[in-house]
Amino acid sequence: MKTLITALALIFVGVQTFEAQTLLNQTLVHNGNNREYAIYIPASYDGSQAVPLLFNFHGGGGNIVDYMSSVDMRPIADTANFILVYPQAVPDPGNGGATSWMHKAPTTFDDIPFVEVMIDVIAAEYMIDDNRVYVCGYSLGGEFTFELACSLNNRIAAAGAVARTMQGETFNNCAPQHPTGILTILGTSDAISDYNGITFNGIQYYMSAAETHEYWVTVNNCVTNPTISTVANTNTSDGSTVERYSWTNPSGCTYVEHLKVINGGHDWPGVFGNMDIDANQEIWSFVSKYNLSGLTGCVTNSIENTGDLVDEVRIFPNPFDDRLIIESSFQGTQNYALYSILGEHVLTGSIQSESTNINLEDIPEGLYILKVRDQSLKVVKRK
Hints:
By secondary structure, the chain is an alpha+beta fold. It has two domains: 2-295, Alpha/Beta hydrolase fold, catalytic domain (Rossmann fold, 3-Layer(aba) Sandwich); 303-381, Sandwich (Immunoglobulin-like). Helix content is 18%, strand content 38%. It has helices spanning 2-5, 64-70, 74-80, 112-125, 140-151, 168-173, 209-219, 279-287, and strands at residues 10-18, 21-30, 33-41, 51-57, 83-87, 90-92, 98-100, 128-138, 158-162, 181-187, 198-200, 203-206, 227-230, 241-248, 254-262, 290-291, 294-295, 313-316, 323-328, 334-340, 345-351, 355-359, 366-372, 375-381. An eleven-stranded mixed β-sheet has the order 1-2-3-5-4-8-9-10-15-14-13, sandwiched between helices. It has a four-stranded antiparallel β-sheet with strand order 21-20-23-24, with no helix packed on it. It has a three-stranded antiparallel β-sheet with strand order 18-19-22, with no helix packed on it. The radius of gyration is 22 Å and the shape is globular. 39% of the residues are buried.
């Protein structure tokens, strides 16, 4: 998307300063639209070293000013020294003109390139750690963070979604390229974003919380059973309590975390709704531990290297387009089976030589589990 930068004009439309901190309201022209975002530069930033970058996306129908007035992460940026960005969505003609990140189908609208351009423009102006770009959001903004974690995975290290599970289309087309930290904060009594997902006329529009977590647990090579702990009920008047679910990889490193707000609604805990946790703090505490290689300091098994998990079996390329090659040092005929991320059997075949070429052009894009003997390897078919 670098070529898009040559076509955009960057305009500074307003500057506010708070002591040494700076909040800039900026506009760039992208695909013929004037796009706005607010960027906050903490006082601790001096340009001498690269700092992380965090995007926070408002909910459907929202705007920067109202969202920042309630979900204000600037105090955290001041102490943690990261650059904070609040982008503005544009009206969706298919949804009554409400500002939306993911426009209703049928549409060709796509905000992923806009986010990538923002990253490039900001990185050209400030010292940004390209390996530590994070996204988070509320409601429809939370839904968009899942899309970014999937479709812009080469730029996003970790994501936090509040009051939203994965959209069905995002779920079906997601193909991460690296271990990606995922935090969710969801209310079990959310009347807008159902904790159990939404299915209508046989179409699953939103995945359940369980399906969302199962997907990222599998992507990140985590063990199936989470560690569950109860968060202290410090506010007994908010009508809700919180449980923390943590999924770790075989090395004991957490890659997926869920804060289950029991009886919680469509809320941003710590600001409105549950007051036992502070979503702002929880998000930064979680995402800041990751870079594009995974959890900092943890031995990870990235998706690109799944073919090297064992000496006897190697698979490549991974991700693949239409064909997958399996190399094996085992003697004799071996069987393999391919399963979807939900455990549905896709196909079965046999390996009869040291190198077997499998034609997979007819299967949809996404993440699959390839089982060869007693080994399970993750493979990704690209879009």
